[in-house]
Amino acid sequence: MPAPQLINFNWTSVVQLLMFLFLMYVLYKLLYKPFFDITEERKKKVEEDLKEAERARKEAEQLRLEMEEKLREARQTADEIVTRARKQADEIVNEAKNKAKEEASRIIEAAKRDAELEKEKAMEEVERKAGELAVALAIKILSGVLDEKAKREYLMKVIERELGE
Asked: Is residue 2 part of a domain?
């Protein structure tokens, strides 16, 4: 009886092992390597997309901050413009009030001057009429035509008539 062998060596096992290795090589070249290349490319693309998204987020945040700053500046400028406009409006209103007061004073002064002139004219007219009356009365008195009572009546009528006008 032959001695038992622990490992039985046959050529089928060697061929099967070579076939297995060849199959592994073919699978590696045709399936595993392209699959791992595709996953690696996909991983790199995802990482790049994440980096791009982060960069875009940072850029958007920066733009948002810039826009907020510009908006704040625009509001401040608008407030300054409104403040200046209000001051100018107040100045215009005050100037118009002052001009109106000056015009009112000028009109009042002119009216006073006109009233004074009218008063002077009226006084001159009264003096002229009184002078005419005095002359007329003097002529009558000197002419001796009227007696004392007639003189008074005539004088009163002339005065009433002149004052009535």
From this structure: no
